[in-house]
Write a structure and sequence with these properties.
alpha+beta; Arc Repressor Mutant, subunit A; Alpha-Beta Plaits; 5 helices; about 35% helix
Length: about 150
């Protein structure tokens, strides 16, 4: 772990909100030269603190009006390999995230669909037919607010 100063934390926080900003613009904002800002960002990348830049898409504008979080409990622990389940569920295009979790369920999925009938189709034809899929709990997303995080 590297030591982070206030400028590093401000860079991380600012880039987390909008990673498209140039080193020049960030440098002007924080009183650094473009090369000094670029070196700081590069150091954060090399340390593994910044691991990439992501494009965030508006699912609703792309025609996916429903987001559902699924808790899935595997039906036959020990008989189905976790890798087989993860490989199969990751191949479903509507599944945005697959999280192996500890607790009541074994996996938590974020699934998008055009509408509720489309979600039901994905659930019945794709998710419930996965190797080892057992109990499923669905929570429909009503609204979402992105929080800045600890920095």
């Amino acid at each position: 772990m590297i030591d982070l100063d206030d400028i590093d934390r401000k860079l991380i926080s600012t880039l987390a909100k909008d990673a498209r900003q140039s080193a020049s613009a960030l440098g002007k904002r924080f009183g650094l030269s473009q090369p000094a800002t670029w070196r700081r960002i590069k150091r954060l990348e090399e340390a593994g603190i910044i691991t990439g830049k992501r494009l965030r898409l508006n699912a609703e504008k792309l025609g996916f009006g429903v987001t559902v979080f699924l808790g899935i409990k595997l039906a036959t622990k020990g008989r189905v390999s976790l890798e087989d389940f993860e490989r199969a569920v990751s191949a479903i295009p509507e599944v945005q995230t697959v999280e192996h979790v500890l607790g009541l369920y074994d996996y938590r999925l974020r699934v998008v669909a055009r509408d509720l009938p489309d979600f039901e189709r994905v659930l019945r034809r794709r998710i419930m037919t996965l190797p080892g899929a057992g109990e499923v709990e669905a929570n429909v997303l009503l609204s979402e607010e992105r929080l800045a995080g600890p920095l």
